[in-house]
Amino acid sequence: MGHVLAVKRLAPCGLAAVLAVTLAGCGAGSGGAGKGPVAKVMATAQQMVGGRKARAPAAAGPKTLSEAEIAASDTPLMQVRIAARGIDTWLTPRESNGAVTTWTTSGGTTFTFRNGLLIETRGLGSDLMSAAAPDPAQLAKTGTVYRRAWYVTGPDGDFEQRVYVCTTESLGPEDLKIAGQPRRALHLRETCQRDAGKLTSDYWLEGPIVRKSRQWASPGAGYAEFEAVKD
Prior knowledge:
Layout: E1 4-7, H1 12-19, H2 67-72, E2 77-82, E3 87-97, E4 100-104, E5 110-114, E6 117-122, E7 128-131, H3 136-139, E8 146-153, E9 159-178, E10 181-194, E11 197-206, E12 209-218, E13 222-230
Antiparallel strand pairs: 1-9, 2-3, 2-13, 3-4, 4-5, 5-6, 7-8, 8-9, 9-10, 10-11, 11-12, 12-13
């Protein structure tokens, strides 16, 4: 615990090989999801600043869409909010490979999930390059102790490994309202600790689907909130 390893100038999957760690995030592959025209509703989404040097917060995007606009969308929709970046905007799927799906903003910033758990970001300036993550079924085994590893970009563009020991607890079922629609989901809280600090993430599971979550994104971006608005 507390061991930090910096490795320079390696791609995420190369980093995984060097460290001999099986990671959950070496790209989403070349599946076909999200390759059609972006839904008209995305034209209203605020473009976010992309690229590794993007440090200034992006202007907030649209906070709400009407139920009619959501119903008219021809693609799944997810909303993301990142307070540290001033981000409140919409995501659509770009590509998918099995359990791994990459979602994108209209400006090209991407978030990659495995079974609803965040494993990569690109375009936040300080990014999550790759991560090992449990699936929702493993997450729901409350009280079980497991290890998680995050690989992030450091201040000099190096990759930094952060390893934590984690457990989850159930906070019980809760009633949610997602885009005006009532939902009932199981609230799980994940606590991950190492010598240098602690991360606490929250997940609301509607069956096997992570309907809502608050997950750590990167050192510079902090926590991101996600709501799966339309499947």
